[in-house]
Design a protein that fits this description.
Layout (H helix, E strand, L loop, with lengths): L2 H14 L6 H19 L5 H10 L3
Helix pairs in contact: 2-3
């Protein structure tokens, strides 16, 4: 990694400390993570399936 890349990364890390996600953003991020990992393992899984299951279990 170059010095510039390290400096850019440090800058982004510092900026991210001021970010506060809403409950809706956290939910969307959680579902996106679940979909990404699930679809990687099973290409038949859809975003709609993840959303439906999340609603079913109250997330």
């Amino acid at each position: 990694m170059t010095q510039q890349q390290l400096e850019d990364l440090e800058y982004l890390i510092e900026k991210s400390k001021d970010v506060h996600m809403t409950d809706e953003q956290v939910t969307a991020q959680r579902r996106s993570f679940a979909y990404g990992n699930s679809a990687f393992e099973n290409e038949k899984i859809t975003k709609e399936m993840v959303d439906e299951e999340a609603r079913r279990i109250g997330l």
